[in-house]
Design brief:
The complex is a heterodimer.
Chain A: H1 2-7, H2 21-41, H3 48-65, H4 69-98, H5 113-117, H6 119-124, H7 128-134, H8 139-146, H9 155-159, H10 164-177, H11 184-197, E1 233-234, E2 240-244, H12 250-260, H13 272-276, E3 295-301, E4 309-316, E5 328-335, H14 346-359, E6 365-371, E7 376-383, H15 387-395, H16 408-418, E8 425-432, H17 443-455, E9 459-465, H18 472-481, E10 486-489, H19 492-501, H20 503-507, E11 509-520, E12 525-531, E13 551-554, E14 558-567, H21 590-593, E15 599-608, E16 616-623, H22 636-651, H23 662-671, H24 680-703
Helix pairs in contact in A: 3-4, 7-8, 10-24, 14-15, 14-19, 17-18, 22-23, 22-24, 23-24
Chain B: H1 6-14, H2 18-40, H3 43-60, H4 70-88, H5 93-106, H6 111-125, H7 129-140, H8 145-152, H9 156-169, H10 171-174
The chains are: A alpha+beta, B mainly alpha.
């Protein structure tokens, strides 16, 4: 019997470790421990200098550079943007340190005592050895080269000087984050070292002093579609709610970046569902292998209103093992315009795509097309078995020149067509900082073009880079028209999350045009409100119309939607009963008549398999047995999602969540971290803490009447 | 005097008492080493990995949230270290070495058994990481599927799926050994 053979593995009997091995390991660990502990004890010092620098940057930035951007060009952009990367990288390290470090590689785990004892030297010296060891494939090692050993960087303190007491408060947040509070000067010093070790020379702007904490506030050209929160709906009047799923996460990355820079994000940049969906939740997959997913439903007390409940709908796409998937045919369509010439753009893009390439199987194909600036095919379709060639082509990309036209997109699709894989993954991945000058200038035409190509089986994903010129709304629209997703890459860590850890989801669609429709039972629910998904609303009749496009779910993706529902008889109802209308029945009403008194709502989902045009239906009632009375009894995943939903609404300044504030978000999130191997949840906790102090500072500033 | 529990030691270590941290390491070193050995297949790598884990614990101990047992958390940390380690020395040399190590160090009573075990072990180690982890956790470490799921951060059914896949992949080796014409 097969199991017996596996059982033979039980007899593996490890020989004892060699003499002294244990002692050496413990000694090395103790050294690291001392270091760690000392670091946490250190107080923060030396912020004055950077404060002044910041103001210089603000002057430059606010009043001058942006207006003369065209003239100053790439050099200025580079100088300004550089701090972003540094801040970002030091942040990222925070995340990395917190996690149990599944992805921690290289420097962070190499635990020889010498290395650990000498952390500072390690930090400032270019980590060249790492790189040379990694050779041509710079998969994990790139990240370790970039990742600094120690972190700090609390930009917000510089922007919004706070009192001693508040500083102490922040340190506590920092301690909670376990990011050590080792002096800022120190951090900045290391920043420059890190910069040098960054693989791409662009980062070393001449004479650049690495003011790692400088904040550059730009009320810039980032364009976000304006949208209002979903309104409260009366079940009697509008019992059915319909929307498309959304697995994009761009909004979270953008929000994180803003907060890390010490600014509260603009309202329209916050899409609550994208914040919630940034995290992975362990919802059960469908038992039936033919189905790509099944809904998980929970009803529980709302953390922000005693009188309402939340209806939580979660789905997790089945994970297609890498070995089982069809070959992928990927075309990278890369923006190499002059504006990409800053460390957080082209160099990051190169590293990001190198990471992706390292994950491909030998049967996969990669082509590279560049547009804007130097346009053309940088790499003819090449099998991923020849990784070296692909990486060399990526490495050879340079930015520059004007953004004058290029037939980039047509070329990209032509190449995709050329090496088309039947029933496989055929995808164009567009990476840009906002210049969509891809050869078709009319956005509507471009949308049509992409939608048309989608029908031939070639999908599109869009990755946003940098800041200041990001055309978020166009990115979203394009990706939606191309059955793809849009993600915002602000760091190598994010690149790894989007392109490597979630490569399955990002690249391998398991269900397309996924729509959700919920009908509420007026006998149980008086009012409801969909949290987030404002930009994804569908008409009720669109649900059954297979012609109407909707969002897609990739392998392993999780999607969460949350409704806030006000039960019949709740004090929280916003609508009064109509004087001349039928009275709202409490409890015994339409529900009992139809024998569905215990049904809260009815959930329907439609999806198409990737190669099919006819949708399939999944449906299930949401009943009282799905309800939980105590919030604390819920799984950590659900509680965490609720905290993120609260956080997003708070950032949007929603008036639906009453007194619920960042401290409540923090409380729930801290208790719901779960395993958090990658440290994403810990990072979230850090961001919420940061938002809390920024909001406090802002309201203080408003009170004193300036700014 | 009662021995302090893991959680007490952790709390003390996080509060800055270094003896607690060293006691914790002393208590768990062999577990870490054992896991590392079963995954890496040779003593040197296992020692390296164990040391890395110890060092790493200094910085990540505070992220242990006490929701699972410390030992199952240790499994996750150690398996991550194994993965990192292997990513670093991805050299085919390991194969030959590991094989000889089995025969030499595992030293079960009869030679034929050693060979079967050696083949099996090697084949399992060559599986994709998640499948390998599932097999070794449930077989070599004798965890239940539920415990393995906890360590691997996935669902129990996913563990079963990996095991299923692993069996499929190793069909030839796992069969009666007769028709071994297939090439692994």
């Amino acid at each position: 019997m097969v199991d017996d053979k596996f059982d033979s593995l039980k007899s593996i009997d490890p020989p004892p470790p060699s003499v002294g091995a244990k002692e050496i390991a413990i000694a090395a660990a103790m050294a690291a421990y001392e270091q760690e502990f000392k670091k946490n004890q250190k107080t923060v010092q030396g912020s004055e200098g950077a404060g002044r620098l910041m103001s210089i940057f603000n002057i430059l930035n606010g009043s001058w550079i942006m207006k003369h951007r065209a003239i100053v060009g790439a050099v200025a952009v580079c100088a300004i943007a550089a701090p972003f990367v540094i801040t970002q990288l030091s942040r990222d390290r925070t995340g990395a340190e917190i996690g149990t470090g599944k992805t921690d590689t290289g420097a962070s785990t190499s635990g020889t005592p010498e290395l650990k004892k000498d952390r500072e030297t390690d930090a400032t010296a270019p980590t060249g050895s790492d790189k040379s060891a990694s050779g041509k494939s710079n998969s994990g090692d790139t990240s370790s080269a970039v990742v600094p050993p120690v972190t700090t960087g609390k930009p917000k303190r510089l922007v919004l000087p706070t009192s001693e007491a508040e500083m102490a408060d922040e340190s506590r947040i920092a301690a909670g984050l376990k990011s050590s509070a080792g002096g800022r000067r120190h951090a900045r010093f290391q920043s420059s070292g890190r910069l040098r070790s960054f693989r791409h020379p662009v980062a070393t702007a001449p004479g650049y002093t690495a003011p790692g904490d400088v904040i550059v506030r730009r009320e810039d050209r980032d364009r976000f579609s304006k949208f209002d929160d979903n309104p409260q709906k009366l079940v009697k009047e509008e019992p059915v709610s319909t929307f498309s799923v959304d697995v994009d996460t761009a909004s979270y990355a953008f929000v994180r970046r803003m907060l890390n820079q010490g600014t509260l994000p603009p309202k329209n940049a916050v899409r609550v569902e994208e914040l919630v969906n940034y995290f992975t939740y362990d919802y059960p997959a469908a038992e039936d292998k033919a189905r790509p997913f099944k809904p998980t439903v929970a009803v529980y007390p709302s953390p922000w209103n005693k009188e309402t409940k939340l209806l939580h709908i979660g789905i997790k796409g089945v994970e297609v093992p890498v070995e089982a998937r069809k070959p992928a045919n990927l075309v990278f369509l890369l923006d190499v315009s002059g504006s990409m010439n800053s460390p957080d753009k082209l160099p990051l893009l190169k590293s990001a795509f190198s990471l992706l390439v390292s994950k491909l199987g030998s049967e996969d194909t990669v082509s590279i097309v560049t547009y804007a600036g130097r346009a053309g095919t940088a790499l003819e379709p090449t099998k991923a078995s020849d990784k070296a060639k692909i990486l060399a082509a990526l490495d050879g990309l340079t930015s520059g020149g004007s953004t004058a036209g290029a037939a980039g997109i047509r070329q990209a699709y032509a190449l995709a067509q050329q090496s088309f894989v039947r029933d496989g993954v055929n995808r164009v991945i567009l990476a840009t900082d906002g210049d969509f000058n891809v050869g078709i200038s009319d956005p509507e035409k471009l949308k049509e073009y992409i939608a048309e190509k989608r029908k031939t089986g070639i999908f599109l994903s869009v990755l946003g880079f940098g800041q200041g010129n990001l055309n978020d709304s166009l990115m979203q629209t394009l990706a939606q028209n191309g059955n793809g997703n849009a993600a915002y890459i602000d760091s190598l860590k994010e690149a790894r999350k989007v392109l490597v850890q979630q490569a399955g989801g990002t690249l391998f669609t398991i269900a397309k045009d996924v729509k959700i429709q919920v009908e509420f039972n007026p006998a149980v629910v008086a009012e409801y409100r969909l949290v987030g998904y404002e930009t994804r609303a569908l008409k009720r009749q669109d649900f059954n119309n297979d012609k109407v496009d909707a969002g897609d779910i990739g392998s392993g993706h999780t999607v969460t939607a949350i409704y806030e529902i006000t039960p019949v008889g709740s004090k929280a109802r916003l609508f009064d009963d109509l004087r001349y209308g039928k009275k709202i029945e409490t409890g015994a009403g339409t529900g009992t008549e139809t024998g569905k008194a215990d049904e809260i709502a009815f959930l329907k989902m439609r999806y198409k398999l990737p190669n099919e045009d006819t949708s399939k239906l999944i449906e299930r009632p949401v009943t009282l047995s799905d309800a939980t009375d105590r919030f604390d009894d819920l799984s950590a995943d659900i509680r965490f999602a609720a905290a993120v939903a609260g956080f997003g609404q708070k950032l949007r300044g929603s008036n639906s969540i009453g007194e619920f504030g960042y401290s409540e978000v923090l409380k729930i999130a801290r208790a719901a971290r779960g395993k958090d191997e990658e440290g994403y949840r810990a990072e979230f906790i850090g961001l919420a803490g940061m938002a809390e102090s920024l909001a406090a500072a802002r309201s203080a500033a408003t009170k004193s009447g300036n700014d | 005097m009662a021995e302090p529990t893991d959680s007490e030691l952790i709390a003390d270590a996080l509060a800055g008492r270094s003896q607690a941290f060293s006691a914790l390491l002393d208590r768990h070193y062999m577990t870490i080493y054992r896991i590392a050995f079963k995954w890496s297949g040779n003593r040197e790598d296992a020692e390296d990995i164990a040391q890395e884990v110890c060092v790493k614990l200094a910085s990540i101990l505070s992220s242990f949230d006490g929701r699972s047992a410390f030992t199952s958390w240790l499994y996750s940390v150690t398996l991550n270290a194994v993965r990192d380690h292997q990513r670093r020395n991805k050299r085919c040399q390991a194969k030959a070495d590991a094989y000889s190590m089995v025969v030499e160090n595992a030293a079960p009573a009869d030679q034929e058994m050693a060979t079967t075990l050696g083949q099996m072990w090697q084949a399992v180690k060559d599986l994709p990481a998640r499948q390998r982890d599932a097999v070794l956790l449930t077989s070599a470490e004798n965890l239940t599927h539920g415990e393995a799921a906890l360590v691997m951060g996935c669902k129990e059914s996913t563990v079963s799926w990996y095991l299923h896949e692993a069996r499929k992949a190793l069909k030839d080796l796992l069969g009666d050994g007769a028709g071994a014409h297939g090439d692994g």
